[in-house]
Design goal:
Neuraminidase, five-stranded mixed β-sheet, mainly beta, four-stranded antiparallel β-sheet
Length: 320
């Protein structure tokens, strides 16, 4: 992997809400994010000299995480408490798209992508730990993450992949022949094939990432896949993951009960459809912490965070 370049901040936009975990950009360069109190917010005017405008679009009544804008202007929301939701951005109404799979309530849905044929794919990070205990799953290394599919017109999802290590961000390849799933707990991107003789099979696309991948985003088929790194590689954690399950469970109990504060490390990657790194940007002593999402909007790299109360606007990388 090439040596990283400096991630250069431009300015910070306060949102009046905690934890904009995922950020996505619409065609007009506006940025959408969901915060901890359930609100879906939209930030407009990123390039204007006055402060950007923040408006409330909807309230899910739960905890919104991953977002996906649809061609008709609607919004899909992975809600950690309520499942997969649909939001009408014209009136703010919210409906449940799917809230169970195989008789099990959907909890900790994480990220979602819709393909051109109308099918919807989304991830479940953990079946054992809720969002507020996410660190327990990372430490225990449960492998209970899932990839699910909702067929066009259907309201019952099917499980495509199980055994994922904290399944998180999700994006499609340029030709929609495969999906890329971020496995936070394994520091890898996994390719799940949708077409061809190997359809339904999964294999690593990029391994041994320099940090823990969280949400991933692609602005269009001509652009790279942007990968947020929520934290750096932690060698003792890699060692713990090779321990026996009882040891990992005991360590997870300690981690859940201990106060957590992220380090000053922030990082993002951009990769192509072969898993090759196009850009790698980091900052070691950042005041904006725990980057859980990244997108491009209005000439900025926009960072979201489960930890912060706003979003960070950064210098985009030089074209390669």
């Amino acid at each position: 992997m090439n040596r990283p370049t400096e991630l250069t901040p431009r300015h910070y936009v306060a949102l009046g809400g905690h934890g904009p975990e995922d950020v996505v950009a619409d065609a007009r360069g506006r940025v959408l994010a969901g915060v901890a109190d359930g609100r879906i917010l939209r930030v407009d005017g990123l390039t204007e000299p006055v402060a950007p405008r923040v408006e409330v679009l909807a309230d899910t009544g739960g905890r919104p995480l991953g977002l996906e804008l649809l061609p008709d202007g609607a919004l899909l929301v992975c809600d950690a408490e309520r499942g997969l939701l649909g939001v009408d951005l014209t009136d703010g109404s919210v409906r449940v798209v799917a809230d169970e799979v195989a008789g099990e309530k959907l909890r900790f849905t994480s990220n979602v992508v819709a393909l051109s044929d109308g099918s919807v794919y989304f991830t479940v990070s953990s079946r054992r730990y809720p969002l507020d205990q996410w660190i327990g799953d990372i430490v225990e290394h449960t492998g209970t993450g899932r990839l699910l599919r909702l067929a066009p017109g259907d309201d019952t999802p099917e499980v495509l992949l199980e055994g994922l290590q904290f399944a998180n961000g999700l994006a499609a390849s340029a030709d929609e022949s495969f999906l890329v799933v971020a496995e936070t707990g394994a520091r890898r991107l996994t390719r799940y094939r949708l077409d061809g003789p190997r359809a339904g099979q999964a294999e690593p696309l990029a391994e041994n990432l320099p940090g823990m991948p969280d949400n991933i985003w692609r602005g269009g088929p001509d652009g790279p896949i942007w990968v947020s790194l929520a934290g750096p590689r932690v060698p003792p954690l890699d060692l713990l993951h090779r321990a026996t399950p009882p040891v990992r469970r005991a360590a997870a109990r300690v981690a859940v009960g201990a106060p957590y504060r992220p380090t000053g490390f922030v990082g993002v990657l951009a990769v192509d459809d072969e898993g090759r790194t196009v850009h790698h940007l980091t900052r070691r002593r950042s005041r904006f912490r725990m980057v859980t999402s990244v997108c491009e909007a209005s000439g900025h790299l926009v960072l979201g965070s489960l930890w912060e109360r706003g979003i960070a606007l950064c210098e985009p990388p030089a074209a390669k």
